[in-house]
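Q: what does this look like with N-carbamoyl-L-aspartate bound?
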Amino acid sequence: MRSLIDILELTTKELDELIAVAEDIIANPAKYAEVCKGKKLATLFFEPSTRTRLSFEAAMYELGGNVLGFSEANSSSAAKGESVADTAKTISCYADIIAMRHPKEGAPLVASMNASIPVINAGDGGHNHPTQTLADLLTIKREKGSLSGYTIGFCGDLKFGRTVHSLIAALSRYENIKVVLISPDELKLPDYIRKDILEKNNIEFIQTESLESVMPELDILYMTRVQRERFFNEADYIRLKDSYILTPKKLETAKGSLTIMHPLPRVNEISVAIDSDPRAAYFKQVLNGKYMRMALILKLLEVEVK
Ligand code: NCD
């Protein structure tokens, strides 16, 4: 039995297989409509979510399965002081697979060590978010045709942005990727990711505070929200929150083939005027997330589809 806590637990071959299954689901949805009949997904969300939780639930329904769970810590026994380990043991009696989001880094790992069913990390604090990465990889594949050979800029909160951490880890597996890290000094990519992922894998990267100066080089621009809930101090958040706002004017020097991504929710980082630009791919990411979560559920439940 396998869980998914960190994106690097999947080999490159497995990532490519998940993408192939998602593409098959898109082409032949009827083939998958009943394959999880009788199976239950538990969504245990101790932190707010719109896309991740609802896309997991939609994914399970579209596979013919059922869903149970909670969407805030206060409505579970965590509010009474129950541990993550006990919660995981309990849910193992009711469901076949768990998707868990938690504000504490490592909580889904603890759950996976105590559950007797697979656990999927649906975001743990400012650490990792592997299933957003699956959505991002399918989006890159569909927009660019390949997962290799491009320059990708990550802009905004690279310190607390867990989607950035997981996507950089996954991209380190592919050929010829150049990474441009765009952030204020205080929100730079954590040292452990720079050293253990970028430097260790000899990925070419630069760090800058200026989005304008690198815009013409980018094939993909991955915008992120400043993660207010991870700040200790509201004044710092207010000072940093509008560091980067993507507007049509700023895109004037960008490539015509640029792909603009954002894991969402957006607060102010992308002007709504960009939504109708054909380069905007953030709502495609939302849809791709559902298909990749369907593929992941099938893999972890070891469901064979013929
Ligand atoms: C992200 C998250 O929860 O980390 N949202 C998501 O799952 N798509 C990004 C964010 O909250 O900024």
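Residues 84 and 113 are 10 Å apart (CA to CA). The chain has eleven helices and nine strands.
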